[in-house]
Amino acid sequence: MDSNKIHPLNIIKNIRQRRFVREINSDEGLSAKNRIYYIIDKGSFIETNKKLKFSNPIEFPEYEEKYNKAVNKTNMNEAVITGIASIEGIKCVLAVMDKRFFMASMGRVVGEKITAAVELADRKKLPLIIYCASGGARMQEGIFSLMQMAKTSAAIEKFSSNGGLYIAVLTNPTTGGVTASFASLADITLAEPKALIGFAGPRVIEQTIGKKLPEGFQTAEYLKEHGFIDEIVPIKEQREVLAKLLRLHMPKTVPVEKVKHIVNATGNSAKKLLRLNKKTYIQLKVK
Questions:
Q1: How far apart are CA 233 and CA 190, in angstroms?
Q2: Which domains does the chain possess?
Q3: Do 112 and 234 touch, CB atoms closer than 8 A?
Q4: Which pTM was predicted?
Q5: What does the pLDDT read at residue 269?
Q6: Which H/E stretch holds residue 82?
Q7: pLDDT value of position 250
């Protein structure tokens, strides 16, 4: 075999790497599909709620034409992709928003897919990771888009009260109704460097309060400094960081002998011991 020949798999890998670098440096940023590809274990992603259908609830003029353009441009049927995947062998539910599709604005379908992903994580007792990106509520759907803020927030609250782990990764930009709902409700909040994060834009805020805003206001760096964000993580480090966080929050395993001792001492059933409090679960190893 000629040692100078380049293996086809290496060619594919190099093409993907160049595409990755090109997307990171572009104005549109990394697509949802490529983001998923670089974060998860190869071949582990199973997409969910793929066939939820578009509708125009208030018959907004030209909305359907703009929607079809976004579909053709991105090869997606909405601004978020959801599914189950593994990161370094640890299963999780993943939702990734894509700002190339209607600036990842949240309408009925986006809200439904996010809510369904949260409920899936709750049912299967899996950690939840949401990559947030949005220009806000989708104005073409009026009040129906605003209702998604309450729906997604309620789902997150139920998931959290049942002990679920939710990690949000805020990308550029994360604004409007998404920031005002599920993007701000995570147990752990990460962000990408220099991401714009906020509700209203700086100009609107300045006009409202009649004051000049501080330098760098609404950037990820400013928000980390003021306690809104836990850590800023560059794209190339996100897989490693997410895997580490998932491992740290995996259920603790307790020896059967210790469980029997607690059961005998307290009179509680082993089933009740599966949940000690709203954030801690015990996984029993029965021989």
A1: 7
A2: 29-250 (3.90.226.10), 251-287 (no CATH)
A3: no
A4: 0.82
A5: 47
A6: strand 80-87
A7: 86
Strand order in the sheet with 252-254: 252-254, 280-284, 275-277
Give the integer Cα–Cα distance in Å for 164 and 84.
15
pLDDT < 70 positions in the chain: 1-28, 252-287
pLDDT reported for residue 266: 57
The residue type found at 238 is Q
Size of the chain in residues: 287
Give tens-digit pLDDT for 132-164: 999 999 999 999 999 999 999 999 999 999 999
Task: Measure the CA–CA gap between 128 and 172, rounded to whole angstroms.
Answer: 20
In angstroms, the CA 124 to CA 73 distance is: 34
